[in-house]
Amino acid sequence: MTNSVTVLGLGAMGTALARAFLAAGHPTTVWNRTPGRSPELDELGVRRATTVGDAVTSSRLVVVCLLDDDSVRTTLEPIASELAGRTLVNLTNGTPLQARRTADWAAQQGAEYLDGGIMAVPAMIGGPDGFVLYSGSPVAFERYEGDLAALARPQYVGGDAGLAALNDLALLSAMYGMFAGAVHALALTSTEKIPPTKFTNELLVPWLTAMLCSLPAMADELENGAEPGSAGSNLAMQAAGFGNLIDASTDQGVDPALLLPVRALLDRAVAEGHGDRDIAAAIPLLRKG
Ligand code: NDP
Which residues are in the NADPH-dependent reductive aminase-like C-terminal domain (predicted)? Predict the structure, then answer.
């Protein structure tokens, strides 16, 4: 059964969500703060609501995809009484704390709540490669999983509404770490006029791809412990070599700022007696308390 759905927000992502719902045959109502955005949706049969209240009361399933938590709050609070009996799916990027607060607020209005983390860019919505993390009401997820599959593969990560955001932000942290490393690498190679495409395609991508294979072992070491040096790359060796990354950057006229926190972490891990372990030993040091 294709349930009708409301999408609040027609930015780049909201537009992609509405398009995917329409393509999957869902009667789709949209609202956007600035009227008339994404006119291409009109020929796909979208219904445009002129008020948030009209949009929300058009469907039992209400998907919100706005800029940030503040915009969600200011948009939904004036129509809070219309939410009773509906399911609110908030795909706006936010923190676990914000998600839990919105979940409590939605429960007070009598609505089921799912928080979501979109692991895709707009062009991937409706395609096979992206996925969306959901947390919150298991009842709502079970009821609407089939409808939400129109957007991207739905993956439920738990009843605590904050867990989708936590997993989402953890994945984005890893992504930005990778981008930061790549940006630094390209700054370094550009000092010798090495063609960026050649370096990226022939060296950077194969190297990162090979290194990705070490992540499951790192997770296993974190979870189950490991013998010192069992991965063959102990931290003391890594900390000693890391100085070369900093020195070479400085020699080549590249700001080493992105690397300095990593060196500080490695040095601390060694100073605290983890020199014979692998980099997983640095993970607990990042946690306070
Ligand atoms: P856009 O900047 O393209 O669109 C922002 C949307 O939020 C617009 O609909 C805008 O309305 C609306 N908005 C902004 N402020 C307010 C407000 N105060 N009250 C009501 N509406 C407001 O962003 P995206 O669509 O790309 O992103 C939307 C969400 O999706 C974000 O949380 C983002 O982090 C997340 N996301 C985006 C991805 C991407 O690659 N684009 C990937 C994964 C997640 P108006 O048209 O009136 O300005």
Answer: 160-288
How many angstroms separate the Cα of 254 from the Cα of each of 189, 190, 259?
10, 10, 11
Cβ proximity of 276 and 235 under 8 Å: yes
- Ligand 1 and 66: CB distance under 6 A: yes
pLDDT at 6: 98
Where on the phi/psi map is residue 115: left (φ > 0), alpha (ψ -120 to 50), or beta?
beta
Task: Indicate which residue's Cα is closest to atom 16 of ligand 1.
Answer: 71
Prediction ipTM score: 0.99
Check pocket membership of 67 for ligand 1, CB cut-off 6 A.
yes
Atom of ligand 1 nearest to the CA of 9: 9
- Taking the centre of ligand 1 as the mean of its atom positions, its distance from the CA of residue 238, in whole angstroms, is 41
Distance 12 CA to ligand 1 centre (A): 7
- The 10s digit of each residue's pLDDT in 175-196 is 999 999 999 999 999 999 999 9
The pLDDT mean for the chain works out to: 95
Walk me through the domains of the chain, giving residue ranges and CATH numbers: 5-159 (3.40.50.720), 167-286 (1.10.1040.10)
pLDDT of residue 179: 97
